[in-house]
Amino acid sequence: MRFLNIILFLPLVLFGSNLKELINLSQKNEQYFIKQIQSEQAKLASSEAFRNYLPSLSLNSAYVANNKDRFIIDPQESLFAKFSLNFLLFDGGAREANLRALKEQEKISLLNKEQTRNYLALNATTLYFNSLSLRKIIAADEQKVEFLKSTLQRLKKFYSTGLSSKDELESIEAKFHLSVLMLHQNELKLENIQKEIRILTGENLIPEGQATLEKPFYDKVLNNYDVLIARENVNLAKENVNLAKSQYYPKFFIQDNFGFYKNNYNPKVPYPFIDITNEILKKYSQNNQIILGLEWKIFDFNSRAKKVEKERLNVQIANANARLNERKNREELLYLLKNIKVLKEQIMALKSAFKAANIAFESIDKKYSAGLVSYVEYLQALEAKFKAQSDLELAQNEFEITKANYYFNAGIQIISKVKQ
User: Can you give the pTM of this predicted structure?
Assistant: First the structure.
């Protein structure tokens, strides 16, 4: 039964990938958390502005005491409460333009959040493939070191018996130490990748498996986040023009004030007149005041016209920026597709070169062991073999990362294109 479990689990070990897990962990990064909060803030700002335009009810209450000299109609003590109902009827379209502008800012904030999400996925994908590629190169470096180590040990025995020259021994030994140094340098690079993964995800996840990304296809519809944000900025600039134009129109508002008063006059009058005074000066009172108001700026030395002109220029800037982003994105996507095509051809060529280098090294290795070729030819063949392997790994790594860059620039969530 235990053997059967091992057999069933073996395909997962051989073919499973944790790239999606790495991408999902990257979404917990603080950068994305900040963008989520900023998106919520934009929603709240839009909701707050809408509610500010609804009728508002406020209460104003106070206790007032007048000491020393006062008029007979001024109470010595007064306690009052006033309710005010306010509502803006018309403001030249500023209310609608402001609400639409806040909705545009809400959309921009949401796009920024999604862009950050995909950017973190791109970082995770890049680290994943860099880690896999570098670990294969390190494995090749270890194999190279072992080749040179066994050769060096054999040469030391030959040198001690006079069957090998000193310059051959020193050349192989130098090559051995340089290969060990390269191995340690690559191991340090791998540790740096793991450090970046820990910073990105908060966990020490080690990339595993052999994930790839789907083959991309060009789409004329541009969904790049920079392009979408630039388009929303055009709409935002247009609403700012409408907001500036609204200053030419009057504002109409209505206000209703309802107040309650309790007064203690304690008038300083002769005793016979106290009753008459108390009848005139009411101790308890209430009043209701309705105001239909108008506010209109008639003349301002043309400052409103300058404001409108400035906002119209901002629309032109936003349109120019949107056109530039669209052109840049379109050209970048076409270039990445060409790059992917060339990399695919490069991988096929490097596979052939690696196969040829392997065959050549096997032949040279046997001849060198038999003393039929010099150590110079041996070292050249060894270097060609491992360089071909390294070049192939780097090309395959660049191929997958370039596809990830294409999806990022196309505004497509990278995680949806992962093939486990």
Answer: 0.85
